[in-house]
Design goal:
By secondary structure, this protein is α+β, with helices and mostly antiparallel strands. It has helices at about 15-25, 30, 50-60, and strands spanning about 35-45, 45-50, 65-75, 80-90, 95-105, 110-120. The chain has three helices and six strands.
């Protein structure tokens, strides 16, 4: 059985915490340093394999929009799986989105990352 526990950001594994810190400020160089060489990232039904493809994804994803990112939840699934929920607000279609970043870790690096939409809502009036 999976146990979900809300966690403050400082209790996330270092790789997840540091990845997010870099990802939020769009620092693909630093964010990709926390990825395994054979990482697999899935976002919007697109799959990026290996650190080189993942780096290009991190560098370019959402670059055509202005947005803010706020962590609104996090939990540990098991010893190697973690989920971080973020809220994005910005100039992209819909204006607001909540996403789950589902991490699988191996040897203190991110081996797999699945980014999944939770809610896309209308922006506040």
């Amino acid at each position: 059985m999976k146990q979900h526990t809300d966690l403050p950001c400082d209790l996330l594994p270092t790789a997840v915490r540091q990845f997010f810190a870099a990802h939020i400020v769009r620092d693909a160089d630093t964010a990709s340093s926390f990825l395994a060489e054979d990482v697999v990232i899935v976002d919007q039904d697109e799959t990026f394999r290996g650190r080189e493809e993942a780096y290009a994804f991190l560098r370019d994803a959402g670059s055509e929009f202005e947005y803010t990112t706020e962590q609104i939840g996090a939990h540990r699934v098991d010893d190697t799986h973690w989920v971080v929920t973020v809220r994005l607000e910005g100039s992209f279609p819909g204006g607001v989105a909540e996403l789950d970043y589902r991490f699988a870790l191996r040897d203190d690096l991110i081996a797999d990352l699945i980014i999944a939409d939770l809610i896309i809502a209308d922006p506040p009036a």
